[in-house]
Automatic annotation (TrEMBL), chain A:
Residue spans crossing the bilayer: 12-34, 54-77, 97-119, 139-156
Highest taxon of the lineage: Bacteria
Organism from which the protein derives: Flavobacterium gillisiae
Keywords in alphabetical order: Membrane, Transmembrane, Transmembrane helix
Name of protein: DUF2975 domain-containing protein
InterPro entries the UniProt entry points to: DUF2975
Keyword DNA-binding recorded: no
TrEMBL record, chain B:
Superkingdom: Bacteria
Species: Flavobacterium gillisiae
Record-annotated HTH cro/C1-type domain positions: 13-62
Gene3D superfamilies listed in its UniProt record: lambda repressor-like DNA-binding domains
CDD domains membership: HTH_XRE
Lineage: Bacteria, Pseudomonadati, Bacteroidota, Flavobacteriia, Flavobacteriales
GO MF assignments: DNA binding
Entries under SMART domains matching the protein: HTH_XRE
PANTHER family: DNA-BINDING PROTEIN (PTHR37301:SF1), DNA-BINDING PROTEIN-RELATED (PTHR37301)
One Pfam entry name: HTH_26
Protein's UniProt name: Putative transcriptional regulator
Length: 170, 70
């Protein structure tokens, strides 16, 4: 199970540095959005935003929420890997976490894309729809990934029931 | 579940203890306990055959169907 150890190490590494980044962003954004008067332009998803009006502030807040949700899903994934390391493959928590990760990915993807759409509509006064090709950073891929995690959760639920039935056959 | 296991009754009739039956069948007492308490989800034909042979009875003496009331 070398792959599992490598996965855990990678997730832990990513989690640690993302957490530091998230704390920094939270402190900075609180200061930037509510305290400071300086208008430093921020680039979010290829768009230059200055937090001087409500739509800009909302898109920044939505992006922070999306980032925090993503971080929470990584935390849940780490918990799943810990269960796998303990050989608790069909633990009810694993099923619950997979389902939750799927929901979080879908919700964060929706928040991110909807706010971007609303921002475009209000600020740029146009709506654009882009279908990225050959990239993991696409809306459709995010939704598919979320659904995939939910399907994995269902599969684990079925497998858990089958395991129980097998164990309770005398 | 509407399927009832009457193993306790048959054991009492044959004046045999659970651990004796488990030993003769070659299964653990824990597994026999699962069967006796009705926690088992399925029973193998080989297990049923062993019980019937040792207790000298029919499958119907051990397994009973009772319709569940709503």
């Amino acid at each position: 199970m070398k792959k599992l150890q490598f996965l855990k190490a990678t997730l832990d590494f990513f989690w640690f540095f993302s957490l530091i980044g998230a704390i920094g962003i939270l402190i900075f954004s609180t200061f930037y959005l509510f305290v400071s008067d300086i208008d430093i332009p921020i680039k979010i998803q290829g768009q230059q935003i200055t937090a001087n009006d409500l739509p800009s502030k909302l898109i920044i807040i939505a992006n922070i929420i999306t980032g925090l949700l993503f971080l929470f899903s990584i935390h849940l994934l780490r918990k799943v890997v810990v269960h796998f390391q303990k050989r608790e493959i069909f633990n009810p928590d694993v099923i619950k976490y997979f389902n939750l990760i799927g929901k979080i990915i879908i919700i964060s993807s929706l928040i991110s894309n909807l706010t971007e759409l609303i921002f475009d509509l209000l600020k740029q006064e146009h709506i654009s729809l882009s279908l990225d090709f050959g990239s993991y950073d696409s809306f459709l891929i995010s939704i598919s990934l979320g659904l995939f995690f939910m399907v994995i959760s269902e599969i684990f639920k079925i497998a858990k029931n089958m395991k129980e039935e097998n164990e309770l056959t005398i | 579940m509407p399927i009832i296991i009457n193993l306790d009754i048959m054991l009492a009739k044959r004046k045999m203890r659970s651990n004796e039956l488990a030993e003769q069948m070659g299964i653990t007492t824990a597994n026999l306990s699962i069967l006796k308490t009705g926690k088992a989800k399925a029973i193998r034909f080989s297990t049923l055959e062993a019980i019937c042979e040792i207790l000298d009875c029919q499958p119907g003496d051990i397994i009973e169907y009772i319709k569940e009331t709503q």
